[in-house]
Specification:
This protein is of the alpha/beta class and about 325 residues long. Helix content is about 60%, strand content about 10%.
Length: about 325
């Protein structure tokens, strides 16, 4: 009698272990484990080789759990009547073999699972003749586990949730920059450009004299768009650094070409184009080809970092 009770307690503990490991290990995403392992997580590295064979692991743990629960039910009938034994077995398995271990182990699946991998390997070896054919059938019909793919909005929400958690290494600045990087590719040039009416520009034939240099200096820009007769006829750009120490001549002598982009162009495409062409300024054309504004590399960077870039010449 006492021996049967001791064995029953041991079997319930074993059932709890199988049940908890089933939920804990199978609840771990195999792709997350690989990523964590590649980043140096020792627990993930330990679990991944076993977890990546998901169907083999699942059949091993479930068969072990079912077998132990069956033995518990049979053993209890040796010192209790059929109905009583059934009620006791159901209560023990439900409470101590399922609910409690699953609730506990699921919260510490990575740490606890890594410690139990040797035990899992032993059980897998013992049940291999049965579970291996079953896992092959499941592999054939279900194929590999699909990775979780998140949308931009989901990634933004995940980053926000991580930053809000007290144990997260992500700070407010990183959250803002990550959000900006995820959003900027969906924005268009028209959303960040400076309208042509607000653009400081100079007539291409302007004489380079002290008055012009003082005016350019007061504006504080490093590149000045050059127009021909009217502001909406930009023909190029001049680098302020090229005018340092120059007296006489016209701005046209220092004019450089600037790229033109569509107002509906996505910012990620614009950034790649600017980097490829080594351009910091672009003229923006609308759908009918009319000039509507300019966009600078700085405007794109401000969208990425989520904050306006101010230098010593900017007015807050």
């Amino acid at each position: 009698m006492i021996l049967s009770i001791i064995i029953t307690i041991g079997l319930v503990a074993l059932s709890a272990l199988f049940s908890g490991l089933t939920l804990g290990l199978m609840g771990l995403n195999v792709h997350d484990l690989k990523r964590k392992g590649d980043l140096g997580d020792k627990d993930a590295t330990t679990i991944y080789p076993v977890r990546k064979k998901g169907n083999l692991l699942l059949t091993t743990l479930l068969l072990g759990n079912v077998a132990v629960n069956t033995v518990i039910a049979v053993l209890l009938t040796s010192f209790a009547s059929g109905i009583t034994a059934s009620l006791i077995a159901t209560s023990l398995i439900f409470l101590f073999g399922e609910i409690i271990p699953q609730a506990i182990i699921s919260r510490y699946a990575l740490t606890f699972g890594a410690r139990m991998i040797p035990f899992v390997k032993v059980i897998r070896f013992m049940l291999y003749p049965i579970v291996f054919p079953l896992s092959l059938i499941l592999d054939h019909f279900l194929s590999d586990e699909l990775p979780t793919v998140y949308s931009h909005n989901e990634l933004i929400q995940i980053v926000a949730e991580h930053e809000d958690h007290p144990d997260s290494p992500i700070d407010v600045d990183e959250e803002r920059i990550l959000h900006g990087a995820l959003r900027f590719s969906h924005k268009t040039v028209s959303e960040i450009m400076t309208h042509i009416d607000q653009v400081f520009s100079c007539e291409v034939s302007s004489e380079i004299d002290n008055a012009l240099c003082e005016k350019i200096k007061s504006e504080g820009f490093s590149r000045i768009p050059l127009f021909y007769k009217e502001k909406n006829q930009i023909v190029g750009v001049v680098h302020v650094r090229d005018l340092v120490g120059v007296q006489g001549g016209t701005l046209e002598e220092y004019k450089e070409d600037c790229m033109t982009v569509s107002s509906g162009m996505k910012l990620d495409l614009l950034l790649n184009s600017m980097l490829r062409k080594h351009q910091h300024l672009a003229v923006v054309l609308d759908t009918v080809g009319e000039l509507v504004g300019i966009v600078a590399l700085e405007d794109i960077l401000e969208e990425v970092i989520g904050r306006e870039i101010l230098d010593e010449d900017d007015t807050v």
